[in-house]
Amino acid sequence: MTAVEVENLSMSYKAPVRKGGLRAALGSLVKREYKTVQALDEVSFAIARGEVAGFIGPNGAGKTTTMKILSGILHPTGGAVQVLDNVPWQRRAVFLKRIAFVRGSQPVGGSQELTVMDSLEYQRLLYDVPRPDFRRTLAELEALLDLEPLLERQLRALSLGERMRVGLAMALIYRPEVLFLDEPTIGLDVSAASQIREFVSEYVEQTGATVLLTSHYMADVASLCPRLILIDRGRVEYDGPLAELSARLSPYKLIRISTQGDPTAFGEVVEKADGQWVLRVPRDEVAGTTGRLLQALDVVDLAIEEPPLEKVIDQAYRGGLR
Amino acid sequence: MADRRTAVYGGGIVKLLRLVGVGFSMALRRSVAFRINLVFDVLLAFTGLGTAVAAVLIVFTRADSLAGWSKAEFLVLIGTYQLITGLRGTFIDPNLSWFPETGIRNGKLDGYLLQPASSLFLASLSLSSPLALIQFVLGIGVLGWGIAGQSLTAAGVVSWLVLVVAGLVVTWALSVLLACLAFWAPKLQLDVFFHSAWQLGRYPTDVFARPIRVVLTYVFPMALIASVPSAALLRGPQVGVLVGGVLAAVGAAVLAGAAWRAGLRRYTGATS
Amino acid sequence: MRTAVLLGFRLRQEVLEWSGAWWFLLTLVVQAVVAPLIGLFVWSAVYPDDPSIARYYVAVILVTLMTESFEQHTFSERIYDGTLSHELLRPQPVVIGVIGMNLAIRAWLTLLGAPVVVLTGFALRAGFDWSAVLRSTPYIVVAAVLVFLWTFLLALTAFWTDRVHAVVGFGSQLIFLFGGTAAPIGLLPDTWRRVAEVLPFYGMNGLPAEIAAGRRSGGGLGYQLIWVVVLVAVVTVVWRIGVRRYTAVGS
């Protein structure tokens, strides 16, 4: 059973070209020049029901555009999309009741004067949630998101972390089956971010919801998503498990050793601090190098590690993937 | 077919009315909680109407009628104007004023598109500011003051009601149309002109010079919000005016709906 | 002297800054013009044979544009969002920035509104006597000072309430009613006329317009100046108390 199916999805739009200077400004009033921006280029992937997938890529790669198309806000220029067997941009009510799109940059919409409880109550009406279900879900969300102290507060008086919790509660009160989370931890401090992560994973475990999540924080992706889809300049560059991504992106591994000797000859030194060394070694030479290290030096301790994900991704974003 | 309709628009009119009702009562509870602001708003509503009435009363210390309207008739007109202004301030303005800024640039429209109810309804009618109803109540007061001593006919009252409703629909439709401009030209904010033209509605259109009168009757039909219903109430209904008013309301509403759909198509990239 | 230089600098800067917002300024012009325009139509309907009515209201439009003040938007917002703190730290009186912006907006409004005024004047064959217009200049200048002081005074209530727009709105209603926009002061019922002639609002709008329209030959500059002195005194006191409160609350 697939929850989300995307085939050859393309999105291009025309953007006016602005040049500096008064003459250009006047000229653009009469005749505007446009250039076509290809935001998405033949993107294809499928997500099974109950799967949690991470959607990563540099700024402007097309992540948010894809999310907007999948949730029905935007109409693509080409390709086919099925979310829960619906075409999202028809925005049929039955479909909208089964999905949620939460953006970390603006987690709660609606009137900011209302209290959290009032806003939830409004959601209940809007999404036709039966009262008993509402009460049960609310009780669960209260416990999971620590909502209780927030219920009587006004939306505009909430801090960023509280807004995100409330935003999630407002989205999940109608128990959507597919959840699009766009940078849910943006701007949050470490503990607020980890609270959100724990919550998402518990929700998924309890309800079997399908989640597509974008984030710039690898901690989010690494802890939540068994599968990653990496897009760059509108194309899918990688789709698979997290572990393989770093193997593919980074042809190196790290060897961490504690020794009194000098291992500089065995690989590129990335770090060193009182007897602790970290060497960067090509992946296929790890076994050989380790053997030679153990023979040549008096090694107290040795460990082989994958390079940190942040670094790998950073390299990939900068240098491109091919 | 009926099933498909509910599927597409997310529930019938009953649900929409309930949403308005719930939104209203929530907003009311909030605004009553801020006592001082409440006092300020009530006072300003009083002085605002007082100023408007005073400006007219001054005129009637110097003349018995103005453009064919007597003092009592003028009060009916001001009352009707105030009543519609109050309803507009309560149910329409909180949604659509500054739509280019709040709706499009801040992405509030995205949120509405995701909700299972008509996006036009959500964007144009879902929020309300109950305190503006004070103006509505005061309007009824002035209307009563003006009516006292007049002889009214049942037909006149009914056609007044019909025309007031038509005026409200046209007001809503005009606000939607002005908001829709933001889909094409987000920098152009015409609603200030709308608000200014609205001020002219407080006087019978007969007062103004011909070009302005034409604009107020056909372009920004401010004549419909006060002059026309008041005339119907005081001087008896005219079939032509009644039909014209209802047609204007229907036409404006259809136009607003079409403009909204076209705007959304553009916004969601469905056309290009 | 230094104050004048600072003000001149600020003014030039503000005029340039506002030049980009011409559409917004145009909407302000329209808003300012509506009320006197209604008065013009209403009173012309009452006195169809009196050409001085049209002349008077054209002058009122002009005076309104040249004296518009928006301190509830420009200044009060600085109290609400807390940026007033930065201003208080700078080695120049805060009011210079406020006045600079005020004058810049007025300059733009006058410039953009001039065509409206000239067109209305021609359309109505208002027939101004140019020596009367010239004579009204000092009255307009003092009127501009009065309107600024009045609006700024009301804008200062932002130190105490968050409903400054309601307060200033009430102030504008007073100007509308007693200043000569709703009706020329001379047409008010006797008691009210006498009250209006003492209140400062007539000096903000109706007086200079009447002189420019030739409905009154002169006099009354003393009355205007007395109110300038009174308002300056009140503004100064309220400003001091307000700033003390602001810095005590510490936002």
Automatic annotation (TrEMBL), chain A:
GO terms for cellular component: plasma membrane. One of its GO terms (molecular function) is ATP binding. It is found in: Cell membrane. It comes from the Bacteria. InterPro entries: AAA+_ATPase, ABC_transporter-like_ATP-bd, ABC_transporter-like_CS, ABC_transporter_ATP-binding, P-loop_NTPase. It holds the Pfam family ABC_tran. GO terms for biological process: response to antibiotic. Keywords: Antibiotic resistance, ATP-binding, Nucleotide-binding, Transport. It is a peripheral membrane protein. Residues 24-258 form the ABC transporter domain. This is ABC-2 type transport system ATP-binding protein. It comes from Kribbella kalugense.
Automatic annotation (TrEMBL), chain B:
It holds the Pfam family ABC2_membrane_6. Signal peptide: none annotated. Keywords: Membrane, Transmembrane, Transmembrane helix. The chain crosses the membrane at residues 6-26, 38-60, 120-148, 160-185, 215-234, 241-260. InterPro entries: ABC-2_transporter-like. This is ABC-2 type transport system permease protein. It comes from Kribbella kalugense.
From TrEMBL, chain C:
The chain crosses the membrane at residues 21-47, 53-70, 107-128, 140-160, 167-187, 225-243. Signal peptide: none annotated. The keyword Lipid metabolism does not apply. InterPro entries: ABC-2_transporter-like. It comes from the Bacteria. Coiled coil: none annotated. Keywords: Membrane, Transmembrane, Transmembrane helix. The keyword Transmembrane applies. It holds the Pfam family ABC2_membrane_6. This is ABC-2 type transport system permease protein. It comes from Kribbella kalugense.
